[in-house]
């Protein structure tokens, strides 16, 4: 068993999640940010991949008191579980992923992470699971999350994690906010990076909804992922 998995991303009109500088460029509109806050508040857990975890140490918390209060009223923690997937878990102990909260923190990593680092993360309140030698076994990670009570998992990137989950058929829904911007750049990150697929192995999607989200011309597209 695994949770219902939904990926949410914001991209430029040419499919880039950031510029070639990779400095977390602003893509979403105010309306889209509000939508994402609601998505996060309705999730049991929020997952990010290694590059996002190490470079940005994201908070992954519910930002508004109203949404936190809604969760508490439902008998849920103020914030969803924070989940990191990283081959070598050399993340900052004083970063927002570890410090912002309150929130349960789960890290899936590999045997490449030094035992001393695992001990430090555990001492600082993280639950660390070794699931592989070089790459995290994502199927086992999702099974473990289900065992931990996660039924709805929101994935917020990056491109490599998105690709692997899609490649393995582990995604149920994909939401894409397309901003009226062009970033360009062959090295700029896209919605699904990684090794890529040949055409015959391409993953197909079923359109569920499409609408103009805001007056800037940003478009929200929602797909069901076909197994």
Describe the fold and architecture.
- The protein has 227 residues and is of the alpha/beta class.
- The chain has a single domain, classed as Dihydrofolate Reductase, subunit A (3-Layer(aba) Sandwich), CATH 3.40.430.10.
- It has helices at residues 30-42, 50-56, 65-73, 96-99, 115-123, 138-147, 159-167; strands spanning 4-12, 45-49, 81-85, 105-109, 126-130, 152-155, 173-179, 205-212, 219-225.
- It has a nine-stranded mixed beta sheet.
- The two termini are 16 Å apart.
The total of beta strands comes to: 9
CATH superfamily grouping? Dihydrofolate Reductase, subunit A
Question: Helicity range of the residues?
Answer: 25-40%
Most strands sheet: 9 strands, mixed
Distance between the termini: 16 Å
Low confidence ranges: none
Please, how many domains? 1
CATH topology: Dihydrofolate Reductase, subunit A
Structural class: alpha/beta
TL;DR?
The chain is α/β, with parallel strands linked by helices and 227 residues long. It has helices at 30-42, 50-56, 65-73, 96-99, 115-123, 138-147, 159-167; strands spanning 4-12, 45-49, 81-85, 105-109, 126-130, 152-155, 173-179, 205-212, 219-225.
Question: How would you summarize the topology of this molecule?
Answer:
Blueprint: E1 4-12, H1 30-42, E2 45-49, H2 50-56, H3 65-73, E3 81-85, H4 96-99, E4 105-109, H5 115-123, E5 126-130, H6 138-147, E6 152-155, H7 159-167, E7 173-179, E8 205-212, E9 219-225
Parallel strand pairs: 1-6, 1-7, 2-3, 2-6, 3-4, 4-5
Antiparallel strand pairs: 7-9, 8-9
Helix pairs in contact: 1-3
């Amino acid at each position: 068993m695994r949770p219902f998995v939904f990926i949410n991303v914001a991209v430029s009109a040419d499919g880039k999640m950031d510029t070639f500088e990779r400095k977390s460029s602003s893509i979403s509109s105010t309306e889209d940010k509000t939508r994402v806050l609601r998505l996060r508040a309705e999730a049991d857990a929020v997952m990010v991949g290694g590059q996002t975890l190490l470079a940005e140490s994201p908070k992954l918390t519910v930002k508004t008191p109203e949404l936190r209060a809604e969760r508490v009223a439902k008998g849920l923690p103020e914030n969803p579980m924070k989940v990191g997937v990283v081959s070598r878990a050399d993340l900052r102990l004083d970063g927002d992923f570890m410090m912002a909260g309150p929130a349960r923190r789960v890290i899936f990593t590999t045997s490449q992470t030094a035992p001393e680092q695992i001990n430090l993360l555990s001492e600082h309140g993280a639950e660390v699971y070794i699931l592989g030698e070089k790459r995290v076994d994502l199927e086992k990670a999702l099974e473990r999350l289900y065992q931990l009570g996660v039924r709805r998992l929101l994935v917020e990137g990056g491109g490599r994690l998105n690709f692997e989950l899609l490649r393995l058929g582990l995604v149920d829904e994909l939401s894409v906010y397309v901003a009226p911007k062009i970033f360009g750049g062959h090295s700029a990150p896209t919605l699904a990076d990684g090794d890529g697929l040949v055409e015959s192995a391409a993953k197909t999607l079923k359109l569920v909804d499409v609408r103009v989200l805001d007056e800037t011309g940003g478009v929200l597209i929602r797909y069901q992922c076909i197994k």
